[in-house]
Amino acid sequence: MDKLSVMQAFRRIVERGSFARAAEDLGVSPALLSREIKLLEESLGSSLLTRTTRAMSLTDAGRLYYDEASGILDAVASVETRIRDGAGAVRGHLKVNASSSFGQTVISPILPEFLEAHPDLRLSLSLDDRIVDMIEGGFDVSIRILPAMPDSSLIARKIGTMRQRIFAAPAYLDQAGTPERPQDIAGHRVIGFLLADHLTKWALQGPSGAIILDLDPAIRVGNSLVLRDLLISGHGIGTLPDFVSNEPEGRGELVRVLPEWELPAPEIFAVTASRLGMDAKVTVFLDHLRAAMEA
User: Fold this and answer.
1) Under 8 Å between Cβ of 154 and 134
2) Where does 52-152 show beta strands of DSSP type E?
3) Which residue, 12, 65, 235, 274, has most beta carbons within 10 Å?
4) Which Gene3D superfamilies match (predicted)?
């Protein structure tokens, strides 16, 4: 292997935590990788990895080599990307991750036009309601909806704000009555979102300030689209993000409950692992996504 290839191999070994997984990614044998890393360590006169039968860790020298090699590899990738971008080409394999509800209601409708505009681009779209490991999954960008991005080595760029409001079907409200104040919700059948931080506590903001409701949802689901369908069917009261509620509200299938009250608005982030910015395929995808969200 040449020097850059060795750097790429070492970086992949560290990020994948395994010679076998890194070898599979790179299309070479684990024995070849092991030999190349041994030669690298001999040339440097220092051990880079500490290996046991159960685990692998970086030495101080290994951490230094990983950090510096990653910077060099990112710089080379950035130069190559800028050259390709200068030719006006958007190509390669774009791997996107998003939640199921956001992917199906926001991303899916824009894909036909986006792919027609970039015929040389390959696309993988993974939908998962739990936060995934971007390095492990090999994703270029992940769309995450959170009150704030936690500190991490990932790069987060805000691309929008989501509003979270309370909804019910007209038929349910006709039968159970319409809450007139936040405290009335506790007397209703509540449908909760299992993965939300407000499953049993709704921190509502309204004209008289903030109020926290302690709730015990009778129905709990792990997908916003399932929650939406249960609300439309008249099974109770629940909260929905605007990108899920807009269409059924427009059709009159759902109505706002306590319209002056809503949960805090989380942010929509585009998360990447690159330190040097997004490449062309990620940039054009996010531009397309932003335009659709603002329309």
Assistant:
1) yes
2) 56-58, 92-98, 121-127, 141-146
3) 65
4) 3.40.190.290, Winged helix-like DNA-binding domain superfamily/Winged helix DNA-binding domain
Strands 219-221 and 191-193: parallel
Which residues 6+ apart lie within 8 Å of 294 measured at CB? none
Q: Nearest 5°: CA angle at 107, between 102 and 110?
A: 150
For 77-101, how does the pLDDT look when each residue is reduced to its tens digit (9 = 90+)? 888 877 766 545 678 899 999 999 9
Distance (Å, whole) CA 45 – CA 67: 18
- pLDDT (tens digit per residue) in 115-159: 999 998 999 999 988 777 787 888 999 999 887 766 566 788 888
The verdict on pTM exceeding 0.90 is: no
For residue 285, count CB atoms less than 10 angstroms from its CB and return exposed for 0-12, middle for 13-18, buried for 19 or more.
buried
Contacts of 6 (CB under 8 A, 6+ apart): 36, 37, 40
Tokens of 220: 């709990």
Each residue of 132-150: b (16+ CB within 10 Å) or e? eebeeebbbbbbbbeeeee
Question: Contact, 97 vs 126, CB < 8 A?
Answer: yes
Termini Cα distance of the chain: 50
Phi and psi for 253 in degrees, rounded to 5? -75, -25
User: CA dist 254 to 228, 235, 249, Å?
Assistant: 9, 12, 5
* Amino acid at site 88: G
User: What is the rounded CA–CA span in Å between residue 136 and residue 290?
Assistant: 26
- Cα torsion 66, 123, 110, 84 to 10°: value is 70
